[in-house]
Write a structure and sequence with these properties.
alpha/beta, 6-stranded mixed β-sheet, 7 helices, 202 residues
Length: 202
């Protein structure tokens, strides 16, 4: 799988375009800003978008959706719990466990609430890549004090879902740089604190 990362906006949000070959199909993940730039990159590679995958509802991850949908007739995917709060139109509601196809590679939707009730991670096991939105980063975790966030849900997601991922999986977060789970287990102090039980009282 080829992964193009586009960093945009005042919050330096990551939008990702994932595909296998130029001229083939692609998914767009978390287009937060500047639809024109994203469209230009897609058209330069002659890619055929299949859909827009949104890891959560916050504006810096969804702001460019209307512009992209005005150019491409493609569905937008978001977890049902975040879709209740999102002001735009969602074509396909997600609940976790769904599998999408990108030219033969399975893309699995994993519900990981915490940063928001409907936060998801997008796992591409064959490519050992997971797009984590604002759930987990290289050295910390997403905030849980924003609208629809939950510290207890974040702890559950870390302990019961993310901690099960193999060291070889590379996370691609909504901000900052990618990291392997091996690096996360070494340097991510918030992840380690939860795994060591430090967050039990929260």
């Amino acid at each position: 799988m080829k992964i193009e990362r586009i960093v945009q906006g005042s919050l330096e949000s990551n939008c990702y375009i994932i595909y296998h070959n130029e001229g083939g199909e692609c998914f767009i993940i978390d287009p937060g800003y500047n639809a024109e730039k994203i469209i230009k990159d897609i058209e330069k590679k002659n890619l055929k978008p299949k859909g827009i995958l949104l890891t959560h509802m916050h504006y810096d991850h969804v702001g460019a959706v209307p512009g992209i949908k005005a150019r491409f007739d493609i569905p937008t995917y978001m977890h049902a719990q975040d879709a209740q709060e999102y002001k735009g139109h969602i074509d396909r509601l997600l609940y976790g466990g769904e599998e999408l196809d990108l030219e033969g590679e399975s893309i699995k939707i994993i519900h990981t609430p915490g940063h928001s009730h409907g936060s998801i991670c997008i796992m591409c096991e064959e490519s050992k890549a997971c797009f984590t939105g604002d759930t987990i980063f290289d050295i910390d975790l997403g905030r849980t004090d924003l609208n629809c966030g939950s510290q207890s849900e974040m702890e559950d997601s870390i302990r019961n879902v993310i901690s099960k991922w193999d060291n070889s999986i590379r996370i691609y977060p909504g901000h900052d740089v990618s990291a392997t789970m091996k690096q996360v287990r070494k340097y991510n102090t918030e992840y380690l604190a939860i795994m060591q039980g430090a967050g039990d009282e929260n």
